[in-house]
Amino acid sequence: MKKLFVSMAFVLVAGSAFAQMDAVKNATKAAGKGDFATATSLIEQALNNPETANLADTWFAAGQVQQKISAKQLENQVKRQNYDENAMFNASLQMVKYFLKADELPDAKGKMNVFTSKMASAIKGDLGNLINGGVAAFNGGGEGSDARALDFFGTYVDLAKAPMFAKDNLAADPQYVTIAYYAALAGIRSENYAAVEKFAPMAQADAENGQNATEFLVEAYKKQGKTDQMMSVLKDALDKYPGNQAFFANMIDYYTSNNKYDEAQAFADQMIAKDSGNYFYNYVKGFLYSQQKDDDKAIEQYEQAIQKNPEYAQSYAELGKSWVLKAQDFSETAESNPTSPKFAEDAKTLRGFYEKAMPYLEKCRQLAPDNVSLWKQALSSVYYNLQMTDKYEEVQQAY
């Protein structure tokens, strides 16, 4: 009797497994007839059933269902019938994911890589949909669009390391590093910094976008507090892209945030020595002196920055503010008693500071009229202290 129960149990288990395999086959048949709702339902059951969830056959069939969904939308597009572009792209993406999973598992007979050739061929035929799907996600906007774009682009890039493409060298494709850049861009936009760390180094090889990819990597490390990694990337980046203001500013920000002003100044001097014509380095060096309350040296650097680039509004703003700060510092010790012989002299000196500030702040306003915060407060202070009431009121009322 015990043997009978064992035999009956075996028959029940085997029967359940066969039933699930029939569901897998029926899903493929339903997809072939265009009954995608039935096909999807059947294959979902098989994917979640322990009897078939770990078989390559199941995941291969799931990929085939998605392949047929995508193909149907493409057919409708070609025939100029109603079609769903996003459905086509999403089906291609799911197909790739299912096929990659299938390639990791044995089939129902315990054999590996039975479907590899067919799956690789199908994926290669749909690579364009991974790219276009990512672009569509970017352009579509809305909540989660950047994460969806990352899914498409990231899946495309990851294929190069998939075992089924080991002999294809997909990474040699000229557009591979460009798609890696798009993946890094999607990562930075969706604040998925792990993805940026993964894809940005690949994208650094892209001739057109490598510099931007490096900026993404710096930002990702900075946001995560990975200072050592950030500084390492910055030092290499500044050697490769010496004129990049973002890299230079991040390096200076690190030094100043940690009160390492001597190191910051030394670094600024080093960059000026490498590229003496770059106005931004003098501007930043002036800013560093301003932070250290050394207005005279700051003024000198801002003046040099203006000589090298007369159109950079920030240089005029900081130069004007430096003179205003000198005026404020002087006023703290200036003679305030009108009867004192020194009063007139100090008043003249104080006025001179504001008079020196005025043309620079007015030039800043001329160059950047919409950037009100850059010049309004300092220019208002100048007009007020020079008793230029009309101009003072004009600034106050206009903005």
Task: Write structural notes for this entry.
This protein has 399 residues and is mainly α. The chain has a domain at 311-399. The chain has helices spanning 2-32, 36-47, 56-78, 85-102, 116-125, 127-140, 145-158, 176-189, 193-203, 210-223, 227-240, 245-257, 261-274, 279-291, 295-308, 313-331, 341-367, 372-385, 389-398. Helix 2 (36-47) packs antiparallel against helix 3, helix 4 crosses helix 6 (127-140) and helix 8 runs parallel beside helix 10. The longest helix has 31 residues, at 2-32.
Determine the structural class based on helices, strands and strand pairing.
mainly alpha
Shape: elongated
How many beta strands in the DSSP annotation? 0
Low-pLDDT regions:
1-15
What value does the average pLDDT take?
A: 91
Order of H and E elements: HHHHHHHHHHHHHHHHHHH
SS summary, helix count: 19
Keywords, separated by commas or semicolons:
399 residues; disordered N terminus
